[in-house]
């Protein structure tokens, strides 16, 4: 595998987490404007993308395979936990 193929391979592994994190950030920013007014969309998306990427890596380590539904469940938990934590954290 050449370096460009490796880049595409790893990029495509993380793309589902990044897309879902962006969509979730847009939805929570739209639905809970008051609670999240101090946080930008990009900050929400970034935190969700990191959490989702960690969830995918954890799923790969535990399940030893990509593409299982349990892995996508871990990805969704990793994406949604930072947004929920930011909503529950008291505003300063």
Descriptive notes:
The chain is mainly alpha-helical and 92 residues long. The chain is 78% helix and 0% strand. The longest helix is centred in the first third of the chain and has 29 residues, at 3-31. The chain starts with a helix and ends with a helix.
Supply database-style keywords:
3 helices, 92 residues, mainly alpha
Q: Would you spell out the secondary-structure blueprint of this structure?
A:
Layout: H1 3-31, H2 41-63, H3 69-88
Helix pairs in contact: 1-2, 1-3, 2-3
Count of distinct structural domains: 1
Please estimate the helix content. Answer: over 70%
Strand content: under 5%
Radius of gyration: 15 Å
The helix/strand class is mainly alpha
Strand tally is: 0
How far from one another are the termini? 50 Å
Could you report the average pLDDT, rounded to the nearest whole number? 90
Order of helices and strands: HHH
């Amino acid at each position: 595998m050449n370096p460009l193929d490796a880049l595409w391979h790893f990029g495509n592994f993380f793309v589902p987490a990044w897309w879902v994190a962006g969509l979730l950030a847009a939805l929570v920013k739209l639905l809970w404007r008051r609670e999240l007014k101090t946080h930008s969309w990009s900050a929400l998306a970034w935190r969700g993308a990191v959490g989702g990427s960690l969830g995918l890596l954890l799923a790969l380590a535990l399940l030893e395979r990509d593409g299982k539904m349990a892995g996508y469940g871990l990805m969704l938990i990793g994406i949604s936990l930072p947004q929920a934590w930011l909503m529950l954290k008291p505003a300063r």
